[in-house]
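Worked example 2:
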Amino acid sequence: MTNPPLNPDKQPEAPASPDSDELPWEPEGPTPTDPEPTPDPDLEPDPDPIPAPPPIQWEPATWYSITYACRNAGCPNQYKVYSAPEFYSNNGLPAYIQVIDSTCGKRSTILTATKLDPQPEEE
C-alpha cells in the first residue's frame, strides 16, 4: 500500500478533539500575559451587614435589655434588628441564652446586652 502524494497547498485539518496537542483555536480563559481581571461588583457576595458581635459576658440569673437579629440566609427577617427590653440570662452559659426567630425557627444573634439596673423584682 502506498501513501498518497503530499499536497503542499493543503492546510492541515483541525484536530478531532480539544485533547490534542495542536490547538487550531485560541485557548479560553486568561493567559499569563493578560492583566488581572477586575472583579464585577455585581457578582461579588455582599458582606454581612451585621458582623458577629464580640462575646457577651453574661451573669447568671440576671435581666438584660438586648438587641438581636437573624443572620440566617433565606430568612424573611434576615438582618432586621429587634430589641427585647427584658431578657433573662438563665444560668449565664451562652448555650442556654438564645433567641429563636419566629419565622425561620433558627437561632438569632444577640448583638448587644445591657444589664438592667435596677433588676426587676422577682414574682
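The chain has a mean pLDDT of 79. Strands lie at 63-69, 81-88, 99-100, 107-115.
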